[in-house]
Amino acid sequence: MENINEFAGNWAVILGGSSGLGLASAKKLASHGMNICIIHRDRMINLPDFQECILNLKLEGVEVLSYNKDALTQETMTEVIDNLPIGSVKLLLHSIAKGSVKPMYATDESILSKEDLDITLYAMGTSWYIWTQALIKKRLFTLNARNIAFTSEGNTKVWQGYGAVSVAKATLEALMRQMAVEFAQLGITSNCIQAGATRTPSFDMIPESDKLADLAKHRNPFKRMTLPEDVANVVYLLCKKEADWINGSVLNVDGGESIR
Fold this sequence. Notes:
Elements (H helix, E strand, L loop, with lengths): L10 E5 L4 H11 L4 E6 L6 H12 L5 E5 L5 H9 L6 E6 L19 H24 L3 E11 L11 H20 L6 E7 L5 H4 L4 H11 L8 H12 L10 E4 L7
Parallel strand pairs: 1-2, 1-4, 2-3, 4-5, 5-6, 6-7
Helix pairs in contact: 1-8, 4-5
């Protein structure tokens, strides 16, 4: 019989978990007994739907903390960390999708600037490391903790307007490799999940996302796009004891889309 409380007492800290891959992961982990802490940034108009999701998470019998605050500020980081028990965080999941999708060349002035690059790189890249260090400093991670971030095929392939995000994703993977080695002595594994093209609010912000979606379906051996639940299942699998020896890897979760 499947153990639905295998993570009882453990916490998942999810950066950017109010929709898409982050929220799907929260639902999956909560269904297996993991407490959920979500840091997100949403407009008031979107909050009723999200609050309903929070209530559903609590129905799983777990504790849920939700912060509608900027995960990129020191103030938010301090507040979140001060409310988590020492030695309780099984998973830090980086799912922040805040960045520029401006082109590098255009006839008008709507081109990618240094400020755009800096904001995107920190939000979708280096903030993962900053949060990881903060949790380590406060001794919040459990033994055999997991450190996971979402990357994408755009880390090596070009798509109009994806330049800044591509830089951030490449940075995520570089950080992952280094953290996988240096934090192994702390019992922390670090990995990236490269999801296939998935319909999420952030995906829809990419220029010509409908064209990108059609291309993904054509390339995918299963002739469909990746679902948030497909990715959440792998986040859950990586949290299990059987995944203790997976470290420093980029795992493709795309049904084979990236090999065609």
